Amino acid sequence: MRADPDDSGRQGQVYYVNESVGIAVGLLLAAIHHAGLAALTHTPSPMGFLTSLLNRPDHERPFLVIPVGYPAPNCTVPDIQRKPLDQILITI
Description:
The chain has three helices and two strands; from the N terminus they run H-E-H-E-H.
């Protein structure tokens, strides 16, 4: 949640932490799936236990947990389709 110190030892403000982490997670998930692995995101609440469990400093905050592994040989992904517009559009 804070920037690395500059040459004088001062730490600056960090902006858009959640947005930056979200973009990075999206790219990481795409790379994991492209490599033939399976992954999902998990956000336990509260996440503070990870700070002590992983012995991280207080200024670091966990964002999410990403379990990664090989999919089962017979694993299938559901064929999720969008509903047609006439099923969701209401005109007044």
